Amino acid sequence: PLVPSNPGHARPEATSRTRTPCRDRPPTLDARAVRAALRERPEVLRVSDFHLWALAPGKVMLSAIVLTTPTCDDTDDVLVDLQKVCAYRFDLHHCTFQVTKDPKLA
């Protein structure tokens, strides 16, 4: 198990052990191309906190904050489109985006 049992002696978080995943750059993905593709949608102003890494062979993860225009009518639509771009163009199926209109959050 990742966290050993500790029956009643100390708080679990004080004695637990966790594994740190291997965070390597995916060898076949061009991070600049992925980031550029995310910015192609007209409502997207900026992509920040962009992280692309491989947890294991074949398991590539992406996370980013996406700032949209203040007049963007549907940030959910932007989110769905970004996920489709990642899946169909780059075979990335584990993506987490924070889509916001507020520049203070991006």
Q: What's a concise summary of this model?
A:
This protein has 106 residues and is of the alpha+beta class.
* Global shape: elongated
**Number of H/I helices:** 3
First-last Cα distance: 37 Å
Q: Please bin the fraction of helical residues.
A: 25-40%
What summary fits the major beta sheet?
A: 3 strands, mixed
Instruction: Determine Rg (CA atoms, Å).
Output: 18 Å
**How much strand content do the residues show?**
25-35%
Topology:
Blueprint: H1 12-15, H2 31-38, E1 44-56, E2 59-68, H3 75-90, E3 94-100
Parallel strand pairs: 2-3
Antiparallel strand pairs: 1-2
Can you describe what's shown?
- The protein has 106 residues and is α+β, with helices and mostly antiparallel strands.
- It contains 3 helices and 3 strands; from the N terminus they run H-H-E-E-H-E.
- Helix 3 (75-90) links the parallel strand 2 (59-68) and strand 3 (94-100).
Features:
about 110 residues, alpha+beta, three-stranded mixed β-sheet, 3 helices, about 25% helix, elongated, disordered N terminus
